[in-house]
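Quick one:
INPUT:
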């Protein structure tokens, strides 16, 4: 059964209604896209080795890359200038600092092993001043490594703008570690 609109005025009204609906739908789509969080883009990499509590060596897009975990800072594993500054800042001796750094690296090695596929999530800055990739690292079971290191108490929070996407999540993990008296 076919209906026809007889008058030109009725056709004009029908066309106006269609345009209004189309315009409203487009506005709704733009508002939804702005308000709804987008799923973070994650890219696969293969772990080559754990360097320390906050740096990994990976194969990413066919190249060997160093990955600095965003938002955390684990103690140094070796006595160097950074470990000495940390000792002064925290009023702890170098042996204590490096022991905590070694334990942080051991913890990371228990979470991820050579050959494991990990997922890298980038924030605003993709590389640091040393050329390392800056990333949130996800393990095969979906947990975020950066967050797990904090939750276990093996690192301090170190969020620096503009890479602050998961700051609240990190603060919650660190306070959970403190409350449970884990780690640092």
């Amino acid at each position: 059964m076919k209906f026809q609109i007889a008058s030109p005025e009725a056709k004009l009204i029908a066309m106006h209604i269609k345009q209004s609906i189309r315009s409203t739908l487009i506005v709704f789509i733009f508002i939804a896209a702005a308000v709804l969080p987008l799923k973070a883009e994650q890219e696969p990499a293969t772990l080559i080795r754990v360097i320390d509590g906050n740096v990994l060596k990976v194969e990413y897009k066919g190249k060997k890359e160093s990955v600095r975990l965003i938002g955390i800072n684990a103690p140094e594993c070796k006595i160097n200038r950074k470990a000495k500054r940390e000792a002064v800042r925290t009023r702890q001796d170098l042996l204590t600092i490096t022991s905590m750094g070694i334990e942080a690296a051991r913890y990371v090695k228990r979470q991820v092993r050579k050959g494991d596929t990990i997922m890298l999530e980038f924030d605003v800055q993709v590389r640091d001043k040393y050329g390392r990739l800056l990333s949130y690292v996800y393990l095969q079971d979906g947990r975020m490594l950066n967050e797990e290191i904090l939750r276990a108490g093996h690192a301090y929070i170190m969020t620096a703008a503009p890479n602050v996407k998961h700051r609240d999540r990190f603060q919650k993990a660190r306070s959970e570690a403190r409350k449970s008296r884990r780690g640092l």
